């Protein structure tokens, strides 16, 4: 069982790391980052008769599951944050709610998997069943998390295509929250593989123990136990009339009368 417990402890560490990475990515708003292009008029410095020229400048933005933050002015750290559900088209809000729900379900499954994994480590007698449940929870958590993230990126792309021009980014890419989320997915898959390996080891060891018990039961009648040692019983001599102690009778005729006045039955039985 040494390899089994090593894998279970390793899976516990991976479970905690996966939960930390998934929660960090879920609550942050750097899934996508990019630039918005703006134009402003700039008057000619020397000749005032010329028409002002339009000069382009760029502001940054970043968005996540909950909000999108835009830089207010160029070279400024101030940001204006808006709920992501307000910016998404009405037809895509249900899908966004589903994406958020799947991500929450993934984190919940990871927490349940951690609890079952701890139970498998603390109670070895139920380890195969509990380990199987833990492996299923880890796989389901990874699949639901992957589906949620794919839905979020699809909704973001679709909202860019059909959204107004002033909200369309000039360029965008994936941020560090996106990388953290997929790092959590990788840890989740490694966790599932470790738990499945531990389950295989537990089942094989259980089958080996069962085979050994069956062999011992079948070979037990062939082994003759040693006879018990003889029990010594102490000899007690029999009682015979010759060895019996004689009973002395009292001759009441020789007993003074003043001693037997209170015992009338003795007078009747006196010899």
UniProtKB/TrEMBL annotation:
Compartment annotation: Membrane
Annotated InterPro entries: PMP-22/EMP/MP20-like, PMP22/EMP/MP20/Claudin
Note the Pfam families from the entry: Claudin_2 (PF13903)
Q: Membrane as a keyword?
A: yes
Residue ranges spanning the membrane: these are: 96-120, 132-156, 176-199
What membrane topology does the UniProt entry give? Multi-pass membrane protein
One Gene Ontology cellular component term attached to this UniProt record is: plasma membrane
| Assigned keywords, A-Z | Membrane, Transmembrane, Transmembrane helix
Xref: PANTHER family: EPITHELIAL MEMBRANE PROTEIN-RELATED, GERM CELL-SPECIFIC GENE 1-LIKE PROTEIN
- Can you say what this protein is called? Germ cell-specific gene 1-like protein
Q: Name the encoding gene, please.
A: LOC118428471
